Amino acid sequence: MKLEQLVDEESLVQLFLSPNNLLGSKVYFYKEIDSTNLEAQRLIKTDMERKLQGALLIALKQHKGKGTKGTSWFSPKGMSLYTSAILYPLDEFKSKDLCDLTIKIGNEIVVLVKDFCDDSMGVEIKPPNDILIRGKKVIGILCESSTLKDKVNYIIIGLGINLFKPEIPIPKELENKIGFLSDYLKDGAGIIDLYKEIVLGLGKIIK
Questions:
Q1: pLDDT per position in the chain (207 positions), as tens?
Q2: How many Cβ atoms from other residues are within 10 Å of residue 189's Cβ?
Q3: DSSP string covering the chain
Q4: ∠ CA(157), CA(159), CA(163), 5° rounding?
Q5: Are 75 and 161 in contact (CB under 8 A)?
Q6: What are the b/e assignments for 73-110, b being 16+ CB within 10 Å?
Q7: Containing structural domain, residue 144
Q8: How many domains is the chain partitioned into structurally?
Q9: Is the Cβ–Cβ distance between 46 and 86 less than 8 Å?
Q10: What is the CATH number of the domain that holds 77?
C-alpha cells in the first residue's frame, strides 16, 4: 500500500488526538514543503502566546530537508514521513540539557523500533543523530533550539522516518546507505503504529 493511501490530514489528527498526549495538540499536514523544521520556525515567530506547545508538522515530501551538518536528505514522495515537533520546555529544562538531547531521543527511538522489528539486534544509533538497521539509515534526527543564557525558549525536534522503498530509483551512492522500516517489521506489526509510537516517544524526553 502506498504511503499516500495510509495517511492524510484527518487520519493524522485522529492518530494523535488524546488529552494525555503532550504531542499532537495541533497537527499541520503538508503534501509538499521546503522543510517541516523551517516551517516550525516560521510558526513559532507568530506564536507569542505559546499556543503551539506540542504541535506536529508532518509532510510527505520535503525540498530542503537537511541533516546536522547541513547535508541534504533524499526525500522523494511516498518514501518517508517528515515530522517536526514544537516544544516549549518548562523552566527546569536548561540549555545544558540540550547537549545530549539528540542521543536521548535516539536511545528512546531504538527501544521502540526494536519492539516492532524482526532483527532487533541490528538496530543501533550512529552518533549523533542517525538510527540504523543492519547498517542502513532508517531515521534521521535534527534538533534545533533557541536559547537566552540558560533558558531554552523553544525546541524543534525534526525526524525523517523512512517507511517505504520509493517508486523512483534510489541514487547509486545511497543504495547501501538507506533502509526502510517496512522491510524489517515483525509479522502483524503496523508501520503507522510504529510511526505513532516514535513521535509520541518524544514527549517522554522533554517535559
A1: 678 788 888 998 888 887 777 898 899 999 999 999 999 999 999 999 999 999 999 999 998 766 555 566 677 888 999 999 999 987 778 888 888 899 999 999 999 999 999 877 799 999 889 999 999 999 999 999 999 888 899 999 999 999 999 888 888 988 899 999 999 999 888 999 999 999 998 887 776
A2: 15
A3: --HHHH--HHHHHHHH--TT-SS-SSEEEESSBS-HHHHHHHHHHT-TT-TTTT-EEEES-BSS-B-TTS-B----TTTEEEEEEEE---TTSBGGGGTTHHHHHHHHHHHHHHHHBS-GGGEEEETTTEEEETTEEEEEEEEEEEEETTEEEEEEEEEEEE-S--SSPPPGGGTTTB--GGGTBPTT--HHHHHHHHHHHGGGT--
A4: 160
A5: no
A6: bbbebbbbbbbbbbbbbeeebeeebbeebbeebbebbb
A7: 3-204
A8: 1
A9: no
A10: 3.30.930.10
Q: Bridge partners of 197?
A: none
Give how far Cα 166 sits from Cα of 2, 39, 74, 159, Å: 10, 24, 10, 18
In one-letter notation, the amino acid at residue 187 is D
CB-side neighbour CA atoms (13 Å) of 74:
20
